């Protein structure tokens, strides 16, 4: 595994301040990435030590400290539903283009909120996931031997590879990899003739196409969501 969430996202995850979609994506990445798991453990320890230091500085009584840790435990338990500390779940199933894929347990609750698949030329399929958040969350399936038109981003694009692989101008990405792009990136993701790809996509703002006839979509709403 070569691509990981950045430190900022891992700290947000460790603190429980991450949004639902990124929380699920990072939890799934952590399942197969000991490097990032160790980082999250460190950030959690730092947060706990900071809380203890603040409590000592304020000279709280032992009873008040117990209340602080009780509230902290309540918060951690509550955050299970927000994917910051995922519960043990069963894997989910995704069916698209006549194929069935198994997705990690941390992603399964998102699958339950999927909409209908939309097809672009029978080569690219997207399904929007209904989450009450500002970002656009989708499952994206790219068939074998397909190139997505080159584009950039008004905000951030986070991608978790769930199955298969794809590549772009910046590298190759395989199952478990987490990639985050912004407006400094122009890329044209593509699959090989031998391998398709299923991804979880999180967009904070629409894509902006930068080449070819796909740029016509930029005229409608200053960009396009998949």
Description:
This protein folds into 2 domains: 7-82, no CATH class; 92-219, Jelly Rolls, CATH 2.60.120.10. It starts with 6 loop residues before the first helix and ends in a 17-residue tail after the last strand. The protein contains 5 helices and 11 strands. The protein is 30% helix and 26% strand. Helix 1 crosses helix 3 (34-57). It is of the alpha+beta class. The strands form 3 sheets. Strands 3, 4, 5, 7, 8, 9 and 10 form a 7-stranded antiparallel sheet that branches. Strands 1-2 form a two-stranded antiparallel sheet. Residues 8-37 form the Putative zinc-finger domain. This is Anti-sigma-E factor ChrR. Residues 137-201 form the ChrR-like cupin domain. InterPro entries: Anti-sigma_ChrR (IPR012807), Anti_sigma_zinc_sf (IPR041916), ChrR-like_cupin_dom (IPR025979), RmlC-like_jellyroll (IPR014710), RmlC_Cupin_sf (IPR011051), Znf_put (IPR027383).
Write the layout of secondary structure elements.
Blueprint: H1 7-15, H2 20-31, H3 34-57, H4 62-79, E1 92-96, E2 99-103, H5 108-111, E3 118-120, E4 124-128, E5 136-142, E6 151-153, E7 157-168, E8 171-174, E9 178-181, E10 197-203, E11 207-209
Antiparallel strand pairs: 1-2, 3-4, 4-5, 5-10, 6-11, 7-8, 7-9, 7-10
Helix pairs in contact: 1-3
